[in-house]
Amino acid sequence: MESKIPHEELFKEYLLEDGITSGRNYISWLRHINKFVVPFNKSGILSQKELKKIKIQIVKTAPNRPVFNNSKGISNLKSTLNKYFLFLNSNSFIDLDINEIKNLSAPETEKKILIDARKGQGKFRENVMKKWDNKCAISVVKNPNFLIASHIKAWRFSKDNPKERLDPFNALPLTPNLDKLFDKYYISFSYDGKIIISHKLNKLERKYFGINNKTILNLKSENRKYLKHHREQFLLNNKKD
């Protein structure tokens, strides 16, 4: 029996949230890669370079596995790897991130600031709301009690630049439904703030969430560098096979 991949149960939940009711093939392929191609490191994080290396090795290492022997199978496998990479860099890891912060060699006051920021709370949230006058960045909602300080560039992508995690311009005040769509890369925004909607959302869902092609983000210039990164992840997550 092949051993489990890092954070396997969390990944299953992530797939369900993404509308994938059966992740059996995803898990099977990833377990195979973990065992025979390149073991995932302790955190499970894969770089884009590592992903490319895996894709090259797949056919060579799995000659007897039918799913790897045709173009459709290879395409599905690549999608699986990309999906896992996105999962590892998503907000699904909030509890793990908080535990990581707690284990830092830092004063408790500093840890609290980081934990609050990771949760979108405390001084971080206060600073975000001030930048937007306590209004949703997209909808007409003006009550801050109904808004979430949602990071634009996901927490884990800022590991090499921790200051980004506390930057109030690396967040948008959003209603819960818009926060979920933004966090899961169902929506993103162009350089001038025009909405980009995933093909995965049908007309009824778009109407339900109150978004359409005319939806505009009240963009601030300081948001642009973070939104550029978000758009890149949006495109990666919305590739059509």
Radius of gyration: 19 Å
- Helix and strand content put the structural class at mainly alpha
Topology as H/E string? HHHHHHHEHEHEEHH
Can you summarize the main beta sheet? 2 strands, antiparallel
Question: Strand arrangement, largest sheet?
Answer: 1-2
What share of residues are in beta strands?
Answer: 5-15%
Q: What average pLDDT do the residues reach?
A: 81
Q: Termini, distance in Å?
A: 30 Å
Helix content: 40-55%
Q: Count of DSSP helices?
A: 11
Name the poorly predicted regions: none
Secondary structure tally: strands? 4
Number of domains: 2
Tell me the overall shape: globular
Explain the overall architecture.
- The chain is mainly alpha-helical.
- Helix content is 50%, strand content 6%.
- It contains 11 helices and 4 strands.
- A hairpin with a 5-residue loop joins β3 and β4.
- α3 packs antiparallel against α4 (71-88) and α5 (94-102) packs antiparallel against α6.
- The longest helix has 18 residues, at 71-88.
- The chain is globular and about 55 Å long.
- It starts with 7 loop residues before the first helix and ends with a helix.
Q: In a nutshell, what does this entry contain?
A:
Helix content is 50%, strand content 6%. It is mainly alpha-helical.
